[in-house]
Amino acid sequence: MTQRWTTAVLDIEQAGGWAVVHGPSGFLLDDNGVLFPREWIKRQDLSLLAEHGIGHLDGEPVYLLELKSGAELPGCRWQGLRAFMLEGDHTLYRMLGYAAQIGTWAREHRFCGSCGQAMTQVHLERAMFCQPCDLRSYPRISPSMIVLVTRGDEVLLARSPRFVPGVYSTLAGFAEPGESAEECLIREVREEVQIEVKNIQYLGSQCWPFPHSMMLGFHAEYAGGEIVPQADEIEDAQWFSIHDMPPLPASRSIARYLIDLYLARRLGYSEPVLPV
């Protein structure tokens, strides 16, 4: 049976529910998974930084315990978020991705960015509050453009030095203040490979919690220029034939969706569905 995950602001003063535990090393888990009885896990010797009610899994309330540092509990271990993404349980990954973003926000907003005073958690609102400044801080979302550039039966793919060895992917970058999504896309492609594009088409979006990106996915056609990889950002960039593709990103990523969608349309395959 498919699990259903919905985000919500839950009252941390209420008892019961499940808890996920997040710290600098990722998420705590045991042989039963990442969900722990909330009242039990809170009685353990944990360096609790913050607690947030984050939503419902199959109707059951789920809370996040964000830790200052790691903890060693018998029968438990830590696992990073990327490992959960690769394991294929999309509902679990969505829940943990959201928890990781809330945990990062809680960690980074303990003190006011204006006056430096300690901030307090607003009851039943996803906000931190500085009383002296009357300032509320909300979880941050950073819009990023990701684009597959094509030229007939060829696709433009590139490698960052941070990628898994051998893997090529689409181009991407964060929007600057004042930019439209299309302006960001054109600038990023120009900066990363010195290529010009045209006929930009929006195809979908995906939350990318590393740590708080909202990836807006596009397709664009080649308009001119020769590939010149950006120093220190792009290790290699090439045109690849749709009949001879290199190793590609994970199938659940929006980058892979953009690639697979173009291949399906070009080769007459069934179109993939972007995980949401």
UniProtKB/TrEMBL annotation:
Positions annotated to bind a divalent metal cation 3: 188, 192, 233
Gene Ontology cellular-component terms listed: cytosol
Entry EC number(s): 3.6.1.-, 3.6.1.22
Keyword annotations of the record: Hydrolase, Magnesium, Manganese, Metal-binding, NAD, Zinc
InterPro entries registered for this protein in UniProt: NAD-cap_RNA_hydrolase_NudC (IPR050241), NADH_PPase-like_N (IPR015375), NudC-like_C (IPR049734), NUDIX_hydrolase-like_dom_sf (IPR015797), NUDIX_hydrolase_dom (IPR000086), RNA_Hydrolase_NudC (IPR022925), Znr_NADH_PPase (IPR015376)
Protein's UniProt keywords contain Metal-binding: yes
Required cofactor(s): Mg(2+); Mn(2+); Zn(2+)
Classification via SUPFAM superfamilies: Nudix (SSF55811)
A UniProt-annotated Pfam family: NUDIX-like
Role: mRNA decapping enzyme that specifically removes the nicotinamide adenine dinucleotide (NAD) cap from a subset of mRNAs by hydrolyzing the diphosphate linkage to produce nicotinamide mononucleotide (NMN) and 5' monophosphate mRNA. The NAD-cap is present at the 5'-end of some mRNAs and stabilizes RNA against 5'-processing. Has preference for mRNAs with a 5'-end purine. Catalyzes the hydrolysis of a broad range of dinucleotide pyrophosphates.
Family: Belongs to the Nudix hydrolase family. NudC subfamily.
Protein name, as recorded: NAD-capped RNA hydrolase NudC
Record organism: Pseudomonas batumici
GN (gene name): nudC
